[in-house]
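Hey team,

Filing this mostly as a record. A colleague (T.K.) asked me to run one chain through the structure pipeline before their review meeting, and I want the input and output archived in the tracker in case anyone asks later how it was produced. No errors, nothing strange. Just documentation.

Input sequence:
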Amino acid sequence: MFDKLQIVFGSAVLFLFSACLNAQETCSSNSVLPFEWPGQRNWFIAPNLYSGVVINMETMGVTSVGGPGNSVTSYEGVSAASNDKGELLFYTNGRSLWRGTGNAVTKTYGGLLTGNEGSLSNGSAAQGVITVRHPLDPARYWVITTDDALAPTQGMNAFSFDTLGNLLSGPTRLGTFRTSEGVSATLHSNGIDIWVTCLSSGTGQFHTFLLKCNGFESESVVSPIGPKVTGNRERGGIAYSWDGEYLAQAHPNWWPDGDKIVSIYKFNKSNGQLYDAKNVSGVWGSPYDITWSPNNNRVYVSMQNSTIHYLDISSWNVTSIKNSWTSTGVSSKFTAIELGYDGSLYLSHGQAGGGYLKKMNGDLNTSNSFTSSNVSGTAGMSHLGLPTMFIPPSDEPDIQEAGPYCSTDPPVDLSTLWICSGNDAENPTENPLAYSGNGITDRANGVFNPSVAGPGTHQIIFEYCSVNDTAWITVNNCSSCTAELQNIKPSICIGQSMVLDALVIKASASGEWTIDSFPQQGTPPTINNDSDTIFDASNLAVTPGTYKLKYTVTDGSSICYDSIYIDVNSVPILDLGPDQVICEGSGAVTFDAGTYSSYAWHPNSETTQTITTDISGEY
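Output structure:
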C-alpha cells in the first residue's frame, strides 16, 4: 500500500518562520559495540603501590596518575568514566574514587563497597565494580559494587556521582542477597534504560535490576538458572554479548554441577529474564574472567594459571559448543580480559606485583591461534583487574518534521525518535505528559490538531526525564490552492521514460515536478521540462528503486503540493532458451518468458506469459 499526502500553506508564512526550525542533533557515537563508545575510552589500571596509569584506548596514549603522598592503587576490579567527547572524568578501584592525572589527583570519595579482605584499600573482586550511565541523565554516573569471595557480605550497592566525581547519592543496597564477584550491564529493548546483572551467592539466581533515568527500580528480575557458587567459587565473571542477546558466566564450579563452569544464556531485553541455558563445560579447571568476540559468536575465557580459551556458540547446540573449546595459546593467571577500542582483547598481568598490560594479537572472530605483546608505557602498572564499564552515549528526543498544515486539516499523530537508538521515544504509560504546546490534544501520544491550534506557528515540546526537544509547526489559513495527482504507483524499467503531465488530476495553477526522495546513493533519473514533462530513466546507469516525486503548485501567494511514488525497476534479463527446430506435423512449441508484470510478444502482440506456436518464425 502507499499513501498520498496533500498539504497547502502560504509561502509568505513559510519564509517568515523558516529560521525557527531546530537543527538536527547528532549522537556522539553510532556504534553498536560498547567498547567503541567514547564514555569507555579511558582505562584505569594500577598496581598496589602508589601510582597507576590511565590509557586512552583510541590513541593508546598513557598518562600517569598519583604518586608518593597521593597514592592511587588497585588490586582486582576497577572502573572509569569518560564523557561523550572521550575525556576522562574519574576512575575507581572499587573502594576509592579519583579525578585528575599526574600529581594533580584528587580523591573525591572513599566509601565504595567492593568486597575486600579486612581493611584493604582496594577492591578484591574479579570484576567487583562497574560504572554505568543512563543516556537520558548524562550528568549522573552510577558506580555499582559487588562482594568479594573471601570478604564479609556488603551486597550489591549503587552510588551516583556527578561529572567531577562528587557523590550525589548512595550507597543504596540493591536487594538483600550476597553476590558473587561478577557484574555486567546491557541496554533494555527500548534502547534507553539499562539492565545491570549479578549472580547471588549460593542460590543459582541471577538478579537483574533496571536503571531508569530517575534511578534503579527496587525489585530485581530473578532468573534461577545459574550455578550455585559459594566461597572461592564466587570468584569469576559474567558478561553480556555486545548486542545484549546473551549473557555468559564463568566460575570455578567443579561440583556438584561441573557442567556450569561456563554457561551461556539467552536474554530477554524487554523483561530482563535469562532463559535457554547452555551449560557447556566439562571439567576444565578454574576460570577467572569472560568476554565476547566483536561478532558475538565466540566467548573468551581466561583460565587461572592456564591459557585463554574460547567457545564458538554460533550453533547454539550444547555438544557443538562444548566441542569447540579451544586454547588460544596465550597464557593467563588470574587474568582479567576486556576488549579495547580497536576490537582486540587486552589482558591484565594476572598476578600480584605488577607487570605489563598485554594485547592478544589475532582476529577474535575467526583466528584459531594468537600471540600476545606488551602495551607500551604500562610496565609494572597492570595488576589483576581491568575496567568494567557500560556508558552509552547520551541520547535526546527528536520530534520528526511535521507541517505546515491548513487550519482545516484533520488531527496529526506526531512522531518522536531517540537520536542515538532510533527507537520510538513515546511511552504513554510511563510518560503520559510528554508533549506540550498549542494544538496538542493528546499529550501522551502527541496528537496535534491544526484546527485547535489555529493559524500561526506553534512551539511543540517533547520532554522525557531531563531531556527535551522543540519543534515549530505552522498552521495556515489556506487559500483555494489545489494540487492533486492520481492515486496510483506507476512502474517503469531502467532505460524507459514516463510522461508526468497525465498524472495530474487537478491543479489551480501551473506546477513544477521535482524528485523529493531517492532510494539510495547513485545515479537518479532526471525530470525534463520540454513540451511535455518527462521522468527520464533512459540512462542505463540509473539506480533502481522507489522515487518520491513532488508536484508543487504556486497559486498567487499560496503554495500547495501532492506527491506520488514511481518504481524504477532493473532491466529484466530474458531467456527463452535455445532456438527450436521442429518438423512439420510434429506438434507445437511453447515459449515461457518467466514471471513479470506484463508481456508483449513479437510478432503477434500476445500479452500472456507463454505462447504456443507451430509456425516457423522469430519470436
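Quick notes for T.K.: The longest helix spans residues 11-17. The chain has four domains: 34-390, 395-476, 483-569, 577-619.
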